[in-house]
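Take a careful look at the sequence and tokenised backbone pasted below. I need to know what the token row says about the fold.
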Amino acid sequence: MDRRDFLKTIGAAVGTAAVGSQLASCGKSGDSDLDNFNNDNYENQQEPPTGKMTYRTTPSTGDKVSILGYGMMRLPMMEKDEKNPDAPDEIDQEQVNKLVDYAMEHGINYYDTSPVYCQGKSERATGIALKRHPRESFYVATKLSNFSEAAWSKDGAIAMYRNSMKELQVDYIDYYLLHAVGGGGMDNLHSRYLDSGIMDFLLEERKAGRIRNLGFSFHGEAEVFDWLLAHNDQYHWDFVQIQMNYVDWLPNYTEEQKNVSAAYLYGELDKLGIPAVIMEPLLGGRLAKLPKFVIKKLKERAPEKSLASWAFRYCGTPKNILTVLSGMTYMEHLKDNLLAYCPLKPLTDEEMNFLYDVADDIRSVETVPCTACAYCMPCPYGIDIPTIFTHYNKCLNEGILPSNPNDSEYTRLRRNYLIGLSRKVAPERMPDHCIGCGECLSHCPQEIKIPHELQKIDQFINDLKANI
């Protein structure tokens, strides 16, 4: 697969993420597949310094924002009660408080959440953790996540906005976003924001000071992105959130590749002086779960640095980046990211080119381009889509995918793959339950052909079981 085809696959973001309050990408204790630093050993992890955080300035308000932002999408979850396994997942608030306290102590002051993160529980957990700190010591960002048609009305959207303030326990929101615009094209933008008059309401709220900075997060068609920037004189965007990493960067993009190219998105914002907030710096952890031959190349270059640190330094290097969001489930994640940004050491041009070579290596391994964001969930037929893809990618990256029956290790690898999958995914949630309804397709920010990929993995599993 060449660079162009790969980026078409992983970078495009379409559809209407119509998942309501079911979105969940939170981390459960002991779930190694959600540990996006599992290629590094942190037993002797260095303690990050205090007072060394790098900050950037928001032009419209003068806010001094930490270059590392805390994404409250992958919060730690409580262990399941064995006596009540069907009980709803609950956030481990004590652990969230500890993580936020440590983050604040080390200079992180930007916290990003949404009404739909962690099954609708992220805003409340974020509010509880931040309420224990002075209001002027942090900036909170949340979103108008009106994905369902019930929230497209002005009254429905306003109710969501006001409930965010209630859950976050604040009387103003520092950074407010239209959530995931672009999916579904201009028609969807009109339905969710323009025709109902909700944009006029949000502009008035900014004027009143209850919204301090107004922006949008982009996943979708470049036409929508271009239209919103073309109307900057009307909306005066204070910031825009885009997906960016060294794989998604495509400096020599064609017209049809605009919406998959971070180079285009960042470049257009830079022209207007609108600061960019970065999401998916690790592609959902994929840039810290790399193929072995790629890990070897990175470790030979800097054995003391984590795989993730390369991606974070990359995203922090451009001057018009306001903050880089990271969903840090565990303290090891938080400390590692702090080490990359306390202070930030920008990449040299030579290091940039080295990473682009690494990106070419990554593209040569055809993993399923899933970031485990869980926007596709819940599947109406109960399939655990993110875990199925994550298990497959992990084995492929680590070179332990049972693919050659003539290999002396094939029997062992075959057994380990099937047992490992069965431990993570219940029988009724396996890919053989997919009927190809396509409900997931419009929800995936990475434009993965999910039913097709599930069918391929199901056939792979059946061949393993039949020992073909």
